Amino acid sequence: MVAGGLARAAGHAIYALTIDYNQRHRIELDSAVRVAAMLGAERHVVMPLDLTRFGGSALTDDSISVPKNGVAPGIPVTYVPARNTIFLSLALGWAEAVGARDIFIGVNALDYSGYPDCRPGFISAFEAMAAQATAAGDGGGTFTIHTPLITMTKAQIASEAARLKLDVSQTWSCYDPPANGKPCGACDSCRLRAKGFDEAGLIDTLLR
Q1: What does pTM read for this prediction?
Q2: In this structure, what CATH number is given to the domain that contains residue 137?
């Protein structure tokens, strides 16, 4: 949401892309619809792509449990193999089709769970690849992968949401929501979100 809010504030028209990869936390798909509407997206595409056919992650394989013991070092089992590479490839295809050259993604490389596809080196490599892999690039065009949150702490991201007057109650972070539809409060994503709001001195209105 915050990456989209910053894109809108910079004057970009928003074309929102959500990937329905049959993830465990499917409630985030409803959230994505609300956020796209809040940002005034010109169009919002929800694209089905069943990554449970591959598995390999606690988010795509029900036989792998989502960790609830705190954020540990290393790459956790909630890492979905090559997910951001897949997502950015789809975003690149759509961007070229509609004539857009700016792609925003909300990856974060500081206060994060250790995912390799959230790091600056990956983003730079993908941007270089985009110039080689597209007709637009072949014609001398360039694509910019914007990562406005990549060096922010979760507290800074929460503060940006407040500054942009974005309704965080419409967002979703939890990896493993229980049947009551509320965040579990114990997975890595819930812990990092709570830590960010606490350090920013803000109330997470999702939990009200």
Answers
A1: 0.95
A2: 3.40.50.620
Domain count, the chain: 1
Q: C-alpha dihedral over 30, 85, 148, 22, to 10 degrees?
A: 10
Degrees, nearest 5: CA angle 107-79-159: 30
Read off the tokens for 119: 């790091």
Coil, strand or helix at 115: coil
Structure token digits, residue 43: 């169009």
Express each pLDDT in 174-204 by its tens digit: 999 999 989 999 999 999 999 999 999 999 9
Cα–Cα distance measured from residue 155 to residue 167, given in angstroms and rounded to the nearest whole number: 16
Nearest one of 37, 27, 46, 45 to 4, comparing CA atoms: 37
Q: Which helix (H) or strand (E) holds 194?
A: helix 188-200
Query: The domain containing residue 151 runs over which residues?
Result: 2-207
